[in-house]
């Protein structure tokens, strides 16, 4: 069997020509006859016992040979595709151009190829993440919040300050008439528990004060349609001011709020927990922003229907699996998210399109950055996947197409690694952040280690 491919890059397609000698086709003819014999019913013969001559006379020589050709192509298709270096994205259309009835056979396959996109300017990408470095003040803030939960409240005879707890009535004043509209409200000042207008009025007030609240002072309308001054105003009557008395930060306090016995142990635990949370948050934001910024640089943004349909089915499967795991029905989910099935389908379709574009972008970056993998790396990955059960172990080894897919996955992983190393990462204070600080040591470019597990491309 010989094969060749004629590429048509403008349409992302190719015509694959396969030539089969008559003797190469003969085993497939015998196979086709056996298969058709078991499927066709002919009066006067038991199913599966129709003579070959009768079967061919009934179906026609061309139909039998086409069945044989299709079987031959199907059995050798993966090898042909890999041999010609084609990245096919859907099943081909087959036509027999020579030998439909006898002799050697020539077949042409119309195949759709994965498109190649452009991703320009990855070196100019800048990503901002939260600050990951902790200061002693950060740790103090968390510990003080724990102390506040254990604090006592003492009434004071002084003006209210930020941090105090104030109890007050909200009063509406209209001329000489006063109405308490909300009695006995309690709020901590400086904690965002009340509006900024209330906060400004209460800071500096004392028990017994009736402090006015600043308002715009306009009513909704008047007879002539113009806004008129509002005669009503709001005042806050201060009933109590209490200050928080924090417990001493000592071994006794530490024992009450934790499993530790010393202040330093508590501080170290707080620091470790905060660092983990900050790194996790920063890493997640880095990955999300990198994903979006690469998609913005990718052109064209249209994706083939075949790839979109496949990605949509994958998104649908994962969504259904997530729903099953959460125990929420589709109907309940739609009610909670306030959308209908069409809106959900549109959401999944959009996510699928982005997923396809991201995959194409990584492949393009691999080409632009001349990313390659060594045979030893591919073999090591095959062995790892086989050991984990991700690839079925077979006596003859994996198929050429499976090996091609493993190589492609490794190339995309290296492309992502390269991408992560060329972008600029800074925190909100403008300080440069390294991949190691984000817990992404596996992405730091270094000498190739064929036995190391490759860095996975994060799913989006």
UniProtKB/TrEMBL annotation:
* Cell division found in the keyword field: yes
Q: Where does it reside?
A: Cytoplasm
Identify the InterPro entries for this entry: PPIase_dom_sf, Trig_fac, Trigger_fac_C, Trigger_fac_C_sf, Trigger_fac_ribosome-bd_bac, Trigger_fac_ribosome-bd_sf, Trigger_fact/SurA_dom_sf
- Every copy of the Trigger factor ribosome-binding bacterial domain together lies at 4-145
Q: Name one GO cellular component term.
A: cytoplasm
* Listed Pfam families: Trigger_C, Trigger_N
Keywords, comma-separated and alphabetical: Cell cycle, Cell division, Chaperone, Cytoplasm, Isomerase, Rotamase
Q: What is an example of a GO molecular function annotated in this UniProt entry?
A: protein folding chaperone
Question: What catalytic reaction does the record list?
Answer: [protein]-peptidylproline (omega=180) = [protein]-peptidylproline (omega=0)
Q: Which GO terms describe its biological process?
A: 'de novo' cotranslational protein folding; cell division; protein transport; protein unfolding
Region: Disordered; residue ranges are 209-231
Give the EC number.
5.2.1.8
Q: Does the keyword Chaperone apply?
A: yes
The residues covered by the Trigger factor C-terminal domain are: 262-386
Task: State the family it belongs to.
Answer: Belongs to the FKBP-type PPIase family. Tig subfamily.
**Notes concerning its domains:** Consists of 3 domains; the N-terminus binds the ribosome, the middle domain has PPIase activity, while the C-terminus has intrinsic chaperone activity on its own.
PANTHER family reported in the protein's UniProt record: TRIGGER FACTOR CHAPERONE AND PEPTIDYL-PROLYL CIS/TRANS ISOMERASE, TRIGGER FACTOR-LIKE PROTEIN TIG, CHLOROPLASTIC
Q: What does this protein do?
A: Involved in protein export. Acts as a chaperone by maintaining the newly synthesized protein in an open conformation. Functions as a peptidyl-prolyl cis-trans isomerase.
Q: How is this protein named in the record?
A: Trigger factor
Tell me which species this is from.
Answer: Ferrimicrobium acidiphilum DSM 19497
Q: What gene name does this entry carry?
A: tig
């Amino acid at each position: 069997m010989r094969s060749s491919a004629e590429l048509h890059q403008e349409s992302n397609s190719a015509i694959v020509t396969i030539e089969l000698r008559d003797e190469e086709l003969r085993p497939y003819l015998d196979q086709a006859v056996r298969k058709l014999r078991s499927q066709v019913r002919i009066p006067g013969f038991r199913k599966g016992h129709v003579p070959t001559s009768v079967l061919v006379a009934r179906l026609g020589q061309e139909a039998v040979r086409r069945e044989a050709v299709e079987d031959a192509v199907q059995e050798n298709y993966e090898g042909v595709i890999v041999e010609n270096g084609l990245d096919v994205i859907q099943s081909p259309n087959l036509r027999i151009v020579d030998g439909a009835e006898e002799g050697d056979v020539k077949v042409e396959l119309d195949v759709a190829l994965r498109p190649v996109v452009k991703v320009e300017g990855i070196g100019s990408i800048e990503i901002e993440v939260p600050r990951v470095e902790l200061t002693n003040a950060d740790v103090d803030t968390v510990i003080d919040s724990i102390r506040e939960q254990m604090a006592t409240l003492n009434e004071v005879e002084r003006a209210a300050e930020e941090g105090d707890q104030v109890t007050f009535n909200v009063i509406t004043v209209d001329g000489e008439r006063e109405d308490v509209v909300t009695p006995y409200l309690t709020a901590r000042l400086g904690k965002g528990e009340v509006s900024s207008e209330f906060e400004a009025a209460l800071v500096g007030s004392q028990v017994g004060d009736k402090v006015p609240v600043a308002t715009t002072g306009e009513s909704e309308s008047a007879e002539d349609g113009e806004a008129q001054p509002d005669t009503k105003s709001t005042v806050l009557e201060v009933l109590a001011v209490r200050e928080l008395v924090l417990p001493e930060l000592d071994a006794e306090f530490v024992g009450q709020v934790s499993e530790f016995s010393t202040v330093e142990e508590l501080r170290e635990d707080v620091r470790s927990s905060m660092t983990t949370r900050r790194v996790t948050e920063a890493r997640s934001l880095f990955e999300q922003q990198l994903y979006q910024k690469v998609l913005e640089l990718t052109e064209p943004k249209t994706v083939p229907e075949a790839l979109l349909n496949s990605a949509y089915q994958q998104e649908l499967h994962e969504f259904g699996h997530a729903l099953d795991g959460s125990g929420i029905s589709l109907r309940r989910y739609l009610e909670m998210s306030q959308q209908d099935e069409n809106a959900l389908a549109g959401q999944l379709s959009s996510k699928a399109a982005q997923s396809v574009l991201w995959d194409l972008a990584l492949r393009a970056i691999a080409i632009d950055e001349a990313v390659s993998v060594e045979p030893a790396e591919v073999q090591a990955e095959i062995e790892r996947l086989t050991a984990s059960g991700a690839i079925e172990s077979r006596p003859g080894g994996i198929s050429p197409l499976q090996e091609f897919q493993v190589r492609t996955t490794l190339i995309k992983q290296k492309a992502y690694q390269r991408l992560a190393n060329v972008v600029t990462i800074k925190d909100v204070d403008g300080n440069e952040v390294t991949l190691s600080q984000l817990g992404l040591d596996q992405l730091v470019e270094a000498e190739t280690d064929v036995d190391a597990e490759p860095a996975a491309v994060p799913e989006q």
